[in-house]
Amino acid sequence: MTIQHPEFVQEQQYVEHAYDLLDRGLAEAEQNIVNFEALHRSTAHAMNRALAILQNSRGSGQLVFGRMDRNDEKLYIGRRRVYDEERNLVVVGWHAPAAAAFYDATPQEPGDLTLKRVFIEQDRRLQRIVDEVVRATAHSIATSEGDATISDALLQELDRSRDGAMREVVATIQAEQFRVIRHQSDGIVVVQGGPGTGKTVVGLHRAAWLAFNKPEIRRRGMLVVAPSSALLTYFSGVLPSLDVSDIDQMDLDSLYGGEARVTATESAETARVKGSAAMSVLLERALRQRIGWDEDELVLPLGADRIRIQGDEIRQIVDDVQERDLPHNEARDVLRQALSALASKRHSEDQRLQNRPVRANEATIRRLSAFNNALDRLWPTFAPEEFVRSLYSTQSWLTVAADGVLTADERARLFRSALDGEAWTRADLFCLDEVSYLLNGDVMTYGHIVLDEAQDLSPMEARALARRCPSGSFTVLGDLAQATGVWVRDSWDELTQHLSVTETSVNTLTIGYRVPAPALDLAARQLPLVSSDLTPPLSIRPGRGEPHIWHTSGEDLLDDALVLAERYREEGLTSALIVPDDLYDRVLSAAADQEIKLGDGRDGDFSLETTVVPASLCKGLEFDVVILVEPALVAAQSVQGARQLYVAMTRCTQQLDIIHSEPLPPGFGEVSAIDDVIEIDAGSPTLSELIGLLNEDDLALVEDLVRRLVVPAQEREDVAVIDEEPVR
Ligand SMILES: Nc1ncnc2c1ncn2[C@@H]1O[C@H](COP(=O)(O)OP(=O)(O)OP(=O)(O)O)[C@@H](O)[C@H]1O
């Protein structure tokens, strides 16, 4: 029998009252907009947008999720603020300063709260009420031994099956996370933490918190950047559900606003050269080399007359313009004015000396084709694509620009013949962005930028972001251990120095909310292969138990993986087949052959129960179950194989399965010898088939053995429970 909380009925009424007020407020707003729209069509658009945000905030999550009492004060906390008709505050928004004590209070450190109450609600009906801090018991908890208690509300939220989209978690933000969310720094706030410690959650909630509490930042605009469009799709619903739809969200490749798009990949070594800060020096030098005048004089024909300007005079103008440090195209305009003014002055002086009428002013001179041809030689104009393409394909130009900046080998990696055409890589895009800025100097800027999975950013990418955030106010989310590209670093300074010179504070999250402890233990075996001082987070969840490791033949690999996914689907769990990039298309076609529908993770389609995700794109994502296919190939596809495996194995909230035909890569070496992970041969007969083969004596022996084993096995929590049926 469950005992109802003594204040259940009153609290249910309070929650209903809050919903009722929200509904009425919305209905009124809708009516007002209809009335208003007829009169003022032009501003109706903005009003409708505001209404959409309001409606959105009704749509998801709990309206009221907590209450806190201190002395005689009682405050209800919710996803958004709610007033009654008399403008009394019925619910305080989670981001209001008044709500901070709710997040800070833990049973160990309740602050001045006498009660912290958490509501678990579904469809406006309270399911449970959990009193986390009650003054009378707080002291005894605080003085007792033991670890921080994990709240029921949090565990319930974490055990929820994933549906392919990240959700806001305002109801269950933890004290360690909230401290970072409302960090007061104006500079760079780095949030470092192992997989599933809530870095993305913290970054998105911090963006919303800043938007509500720092109007000056919100006015200057805010941006959230994800490394891939798949990850962006996964979390892009969180900010609108927190009532902030005016924060831009973008994937890294969309940052460059020019023509070029990523259509190619390249070797890690080449990407490293193009992504290095040295490249910015090289590009600037290359541009400067295209500027200048090495002829003795410039002669401008004007009918029968000639205007003559000495080479030294031109070089002086160029020097003066260069000193002003303007963007290339703006500087060209200044130069054009200065040169035409000099030419006009020279023409007037000459004519006056010869008692002849002045025949041309500055504007006339600027229209002369000889003047424009000279200007193009002296200070040419470029489109970024044209500039970089021509630089990459001109050995002599590259050689001079790279002198002292790149080695000959590095320089050779940049060269490509003009015939190679327009295949741009991601690293190229950021060279183009740099050139575009050198040429035009204009770029959309923001008051604050949140960067997810920042550990992989190249210096050139960081520079592009720095240009977009002149205040240097960043939230940088990442895990140095999960760097899988060419930019592996020992410290965050190596990256943040390219973002801004503002102060950097590094904040570490230690508790893992996603990955079950047994899966994390297995994944963490990759860490010593990466570096001796990396530690995984502390998982607070058991999940469904030990990882399953399946062995099968190369021929059956993909079909067997699909069978596993089908099994989980039948159990109502979402799963991801994380596959080596090279097998991606084969998995899709194997599924199509069997008429199995798979979400295409490359395109950010997470709407189906089973999604296939190339290993290179799985960072930041999560699913109930992960079926990692052929880890040896996943490790081999990346310059950072062990790190790539660590990332892939830490995407599940419930269960990790690994299926392989090739020998397992390093780090798994001892797996089959350890009795907490059982290796199953997919081709072997089922346990019941084996039992059927036994004679009576053997059967009795087995029964006796099983009887003796069962008791200790049930007592031990970490025993792997593996389906007795093999994959097929
Ligand atoms: N306080 C919380 N309450 C409820 N759920 C949480 C909380 N913190 C984190 N989570 C959940 O834990 C999971 C992992 O969070 P998140 O993706 O932010 O972690 P991460 O550190 O960014 O992981 P990764 O390193 O893999 O990118 C998500 O499902 C998130 O909703």
From TrEMBL:
Keywords: ATP-binding, Helicase, Hydrolase, Nucleotide-binding. The lineage of its organism: Bacteria, Bacillati, Actinomycetota, Actinomycetes, Propionibacteriales. Coiled coil: none annotated. InterPro entries: DNA_helicase_UvrD/REP, P-loop_NTPase, UvrD-like_ATP-bd, UvrD-like_helicase_C. ATP binds at G193, G194, P195, G196, T197, G198, K199, T200. The keyword ATP-binding applies. Residues 172-516 form the UvrD-like helicase ATP-binding domain. It comes from the Bacteria. The keyword tRNA processing does not apply. Signal peptide: none annotated. This is AAA family ATPase. Pfam families: UvrD_C_2. Transmembrane segments: none annotated.
